[in-house]
Each structure stands twice: as structure tokens, then as C-alpha cells.
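Quick review question:
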């Protein structure tokens, strides 16, 4: 019984508190930057626009990672890609301070293997040191606004990379700042 009263009080307070100005208005452009977690420092810059129940964005990303070879040497890799995604808002609070998005996107770019030439001369990769890559990526992101125009964004994606000699599947996790313009 006490639980139902506390639920009713919370619901009443939630309905009586005025909502803040909508942060993700239809047509509102945004820009942002993020750091990617992986084997080495990586980052991205991103710009896009909110729509009524989704957002679209475009990004320039430089991501680096390491792959262990059969010789126990470490192969450094650098991917430079352009990406675009479409994400639907699947969960939000009333004033849109916190939003959860899920969607998918495409990307294309260039992958450089051993960009700093750290591998010994005796190691033969058996393939070119650079290749054009492309793929698709499902993604999930969460944004939390600290004020009307600034949000912390945490996102994760699982890009399926094609035409890479190092494999198809990789995880990306990033955290950054988004500014509503």
C-alpha cells in the first residue's frame, strides 16, 4: 500500500513539474567530438540534425588498433573513414534531458597497416599495407544534456568492415561532447 502511494506521489510530482525547453527540436543541427576506446588514441568529429523522432549524422573518424601476429609482433592499424548514420529515439525522459538512440549507418575509408613502420623487416604481412574499406554499423548512443545546448554522448557500434585483410568485426566505444547549434 505504501508503495502505491509513493508511486502516485512521484507520478504527481513528475506531471506538475514544468518541462524544460525541448533540447532535440526538429531541424536542430548539432556538432560534436568524441574519443574512441581501443588500442591507441582515436577520435571523431560529427555533425548532424535532429528530426521529430530520430537523428541523422555524418562523421570523420580516425581509429587505431593493434593486432597480434603469429610471430608475436604487434601490428598497428589506422582506419580513416567517413560515416553516416540514422538513429531512432527509443527512450527519452519528458524534457529530453536524457535520450537513448539506436540505428545503423554506413562508412567508407582507408586502412593503413603499420603506419609508423614498427614491424621488423623480417616480418612479411603477405598483403598490401593499405586498402580501401567499407561497411555497415549498427549503433546505440545515449546523450545526457548538462544545459540547454551541451550534452555528454556515450555510444557503441559494431562495424562490419569489408575488404580489410584483418577481419570483418570490431567493437567501437566512444565518449564525447555534443553541442546544439
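Suggested answer, residue by residue:
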Amino acid at each position: 500500500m505504501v508503495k502505491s502511494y509513493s508511486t502516485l506521489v512521484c507520478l504527481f510530482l513528475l506531471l506538475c513539474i514544468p518541462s524544460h525547453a525541448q533540447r532535440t527540436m526538429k531541424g536542430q543541427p548539432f556538432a560534436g567530438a568524441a574519443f574512441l576506446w581501443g588500442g591507441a588514441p582515436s577520435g571523431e568529429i560529427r555533425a548532424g540534425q535532429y528530426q521529430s523522432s530520430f537523428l541523422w549524422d555524418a562523421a570523420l573518424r580516425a581509429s587505431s588498433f593493434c593486432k597480434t601476429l603469429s610471430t608475436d609482433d604487434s601490428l598497428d592499424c589506422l582506419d580513416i573513414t567517413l560515416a553516416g548514420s540514422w538513429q531512432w529515439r527509443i527512450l527519452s525522459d519528458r524534457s529530453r534531458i536524457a535520450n537513448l538512440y539506436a540505428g545503423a549507418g554506413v562508412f567508407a575509408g582507408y586502412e593503413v597497416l603499420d603506419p609508423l613502420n614498427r614491424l621488423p623487416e623480417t616480418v612479411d604481412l603477405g598483403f598490401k599495407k593499405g586498402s580501401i574499406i567499407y561497411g555497415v554499423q549498427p549503433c546505440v548512443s545515449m546523450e545526457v544534456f548538462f544545459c540547454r545546448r551541451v550534452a555528454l554522448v556515450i555510444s557503441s557500434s559494431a562495424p562490419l568492415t569489408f575488404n580489410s585483410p584483418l577481419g570483418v568485426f570490431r567493437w567501437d566505444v566512444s565518449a564525447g561532447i555534443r553541442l546544439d547549434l
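Why it works: The longest strand covers residues 74-92. The radius of gyration is 21 Å.
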